[in-house]
Design goal:
This protein has about 375 residues and is an alpha/beta fold. Helix content is about 40%, strand content about 25%. A hairpin with a 2-residue loop joins strand 1 and strand 2.
Length: about 375
């Protein structure tokens, strides 16, 4: 997923080129089957459908012809409501099978106007082949026989579609990003040693702010249990007693992060990153989506208290790894490998130190004060 800036708007990838072409091939196969003996005339609507038409025609294997018509109904990101035929059709359509190639059917008014115009030329039949359809926006009854994809009511660019004549050359399809939502999005890294209370405070933040929650342990177990390709790959490392590569872990987190949608209020990253390379990879992943980490919340708890908490937790839960020896090793790993992240996030200007020793409500209040000021 990537983000592009076109004039004053930001767009993110929503449909990659590979998926677009696979779906076009499926529609082309249907047309080849349905119109094998009809020598159809394809009418490509300029300007938006020129990329779609070029790819579609290379997949059509039956005898056919192609011509072009130009209609206009968009200016900027909204319909002008004025439909003007700019370039007419010179072919004789009498008793011909006509297939309109359109980039997107939105309200359907443009398409209705075109079908009415074609009807005066006495074709045998008129069919609609549209790259994209917005069912929520349709205002007229249309039989769109060959719809490549249905999409939500979002403004999109790329693959022939434009924003004020820009972006047609992009190979993927991009969706307009809501800038206000981005400004209010609160992606949080909750940071601290084992036993510092990350899980408890995460639960409180989720309840108060409606944030999503990504815990590396939970995510890995879920992906493996569901048998996803990423889960299978992760399991192959775990089964061999090997650490999961950072690139794979980020891919897994990215998949989960994307499942929250584009306009979520924010996500808590719990247990990731643990190293500076992981922090850099997380930053890059979010930047590709036009997002960022708003704050790193550091829960600072003295080691003596951490030992007490973890030993008590082991006694209550029966966890074999919560004994004095293993706890000391885990804290050593944290200090040697993970604590340099404090300095890294300090340089990023988003580190917020929280005294993690004391009453639960007071700690939660301190964290919420930070988040409310973001």
């Amino acid at each position: 997923m990537s983000v592009v800036k076109i004039k004053d708007k930001t767009f993110r990838t929503s449909i990659p080129e590979k998926e677009i072409k696979e779906r076009i091939q499926a529609v082309a196969d249907r047309i080849n089957h349905d119109m094998a003996d009809k020598n159809p005339l394809f009418l490509a609507v300029l300007n938006g459908a020129f990329v779609f038409a070029a790819d579609l025609m290379r997949m059509i294997t039956i005898p056919c012809e192609i011509s072009f018509v130009k209609l206009a109904s968009y200016q900027g990101t909204t319909s002008t409501g004025k439909i003007t035929e700019v370039m007419g059709i010179n072919e004789d359509l009498t008793d011909r099978t006509v297939v309109i190639i359109e980039d997107i059917v939105d309200t359907g008014l443009t398409m209705k106007r075109m079908i009415e115009s074609l009807g005066t030329r006495h074709p045998a039949s008129v069919h609609i082949c549209s790259l994209l359809v917005k069912p929520e926006k349709l205002q007229v009854d249309l039989n769109i026989e060959y719809a490549v994809m249905e999409i939500p009511n979002d403004f999109i660019v790329g693959y022939g579609l434009d924003y004020d004549q820009q972006g047609r050359n992009l190979p993927d399809i991009y969706t307009l990003v809501n800038e206000d939502n981005l400004k209010n999005m609160k992606n949080i890294v909750i940071f601290g040693a084992p036993g510092s209370g990350k899980g408890t405070q995460s639960d409180l933040l989720i309840e108060k702010y409606g944030l999503g929650h990504i815990s590396t342990g939970d995510v890995l177990r879920s992906e493996i249990k569901k048998g996803t390709e990423l889960g299978k790959t992760a399991a192959s490392y775990i089964d061999k007693g090997q650490l999961i590569p950072d690139a794979l872990m980020v891919d897994i987190l990215a998949s989960v992060y994307d499942s929250f949608g584009t306009d979520h209020p924010g996500v808590i990253f719990d247990g990731f990153p643990r190293t500076i390379p992981q922090a850099e990879a997380l930053k890059k992943m979010l930047e590709e989506r036009g997002h960022r980490i708003a704050a790193m919340i550091e829960l600072d708890v003295p080691e003596e208290e951490l030992m007490t908490r973890l030993i008590k937790r082991g006694q209550e839960s029966g966890r074999s790894d919560d004994n004095a020896e293993t706890i000391k090793k885990r804290l050593d790993v944290y200090h040697n490998q993970t604590s340099p992240l404090i300095e890294w996030y300090e340089k990023e200007g988003i580190r917020h130190h929280i005294n993690g020793l004391g009453a639960l409500d007071r700690i939660a209040g301190d964290i919420q004060q930070v988040i409310d000021q973001l």
